[in-house]
Specification:
Blueprint (H helix, E strand, L loop, with lengths): L12 H13 L4 E11 L5 E8 L5 E7 H7 L7 E10 L6 E10 L2 H17 L18 E5 L4 H13 L5 E5 L7 H14 L5 E6 L13 H9 L4 E5 L8 H4 L2 E2 L3 H7 L4 H34 L2 H4 L2 H43 L1 H6 L4 E3 L17 E6 L2 E6 L7 H8 L1
Length: 413
């Protein structure tokens, strides 16, 4: 029993908080089932979440280490979990809190945790690498369809694909799409269609359903078979919010079977419109090219050389004639200059010629042997000489040879 107290003997607040803390913590860890109504993930190690009783309007705040949440798998708001809680009281504030050391998803949450662990394992092996996804053919020869017999999913895929491309051919394999035998039948149909050379794409389709209903499409064997398939696979499971593991490994994820029917074949109306537009663009391009080349050709033909081809030759002939005229004028000037120079040289030569001296009245004497007589000492009285004049020659007999006084002086010197 707690000690009694009165106003004369009050207890300290710290004593009270410690006493309450002791009473509360004697409860020890307790497994409880509750719903996660708030989850605040933080950057630090300590995480906060709010738990509510599944039957009554009672909520508590709990703390846990980040490792506890990571080990529990995908814990999300609204999930029902089984948690190991230890009640405690914060000494500084006296506030009641709960420390959570383990969390186990229960019900649908447990399934989600299992699927999350499977997804992580397959992702670590590289099965979800988008670089390995195979492209869908533009116009498949045949479309393999794996779905439930007479299901809305089958009708939606076929109707929407046929509306877009009436000639599309389907190879349908009806299987179970839920339950324990669904995976086996889907695997058999997948192997059969993948081996068919006329099937270019395979669609696995099913309408919406609960998490348990869609479990076959998260089966590890099916995921690995889709990854190993040589034919591109389209996943069209449930609605937009449904995300089985098959969506991650498929070459294309369609949000619904209707969406799959629209994405596996082209729209003939769109393709026809596109072809019409392409033809118009090609014709316009060709017409523009012809107009451009015609304008270029017209420009070339309008050039003077094309209008009058001989005009260039006429210009060249004029240039040649002008050059020849200049060369002749230059040659004539050179010849005239050379002739004048020759005349000057000839005049100089003639001025220095002995004949010019004879023309001035002088004569040149030579003895009978033809040797020049330039001095009286070169001849003697009675010698016969020849006198050359400008207009002929004379035979001369020397009667006397008298040297001049200058000649005597030069002789004596």
């Amino acid at each position: 029993m707690p000690e009694t107290s009165d106003a004369d003997r009050p207890k300290s607040l710290a004593w009270v908080v410690r006493a309450v803390k002791g009473w509360v913590e004697r409860c020890g860890p307790v497994w409880v089932q509750a719903q996660v109504i708030e989850l605040n993930r933080r950057s630090g190690p300590t995480q906060f979440l709010t738990l509510r009783d599944v039957d009554e309007e009672i909520s508590v705040t709990a703390t846990c280490h980040r490792r506890v949440l990571d080990a529990a798998g995908p814990v999300e708001t609204g999930m029902t979990v089984t948690a190991l809680l230890r009640p405690t009281v914060w000494s500084k504030t006296g506030r009641l809190s709960f420390e959570c050391s383990r969390i186990q998803p229960s019900g649908e949450g447990q399934l989600l945790a299992q699927l999350e662990r499977r997804r992580r394992l397959l992702e670590a092996e590289g099965l979800f690498n988008t670089a390995l996804h195979k492209p869908l053919p533009m116009l498949p020869r045949g479309v393999g369809l794996i779905t439930g017999a007479h299901s809305d999913a089958e009708r939606d895929v076929i109707r929407n694909a046929t509306l877009r491309w009436p000639a599309v051919r389907f190879v349908v394999r009806n299987t179970l799409v839920q339950g324990s035998h669904a995976v086996e039948q889907i695997l058999t149909a997948l192997a059969d269609l993948d081996a068919d050379p006329d099937v270019d794409v395979i669609v696995i389709a099913r309408g919406g359903g609960s998490l348990e209903d869609l479990l076959p499409f998260s089966d590890e064997a099916l995921v690995r078979a889709v990854f190993a398939a040589r034919t591109p696979v389209v996943s069209a499971i449930g609605h937009e919010r449904d995300n089985p593991i098959l969506d991650l490994v498929a070459d294309l994820r369609a949000s619904t079977p209707t969406d799959a029917g629209k994405r596996i074949v082209p729209d003939i109306a769109e393709e026809t419109s596109l072809m019409t537009e392409c033809r118009l663009r090609i014709r316009q391009s060709v017409a523009n090219l012809v107009l451009t080349e015609q304008a270029r050709l017209d420009g070339l033909r309008s050039r003077p050389v094309m209008v009058e081809p001989t005009a260039t030759l006429d210009i060249a002939a004029e240039r040649l004639q002008s050059t020849v005229t200049r060369m002749r004028s230059a040659t004539d000037r050179c010849l005239d200059t050379a002739a004048h120079q020759i005349d000057r040289y000839l005049a100089q030569v003639r001025a220095m010629s002995p004949k010019a001296t004879l023309d001035r009245g002088y004569a040149a004497l030579a003895d009978e042997h033809g040797d020049s007589v330039s001095s009286v000492r070169r001849t003697s009285t009675g010698a016969r000489l020849r006198a050359f004049l400008s207009d002929g020659e004379l035979g001369v007999l020397v009667e006397s040879a008298t040297p001049t006084s200058r000649s005597q002086a030069e002789e004596q010197s």
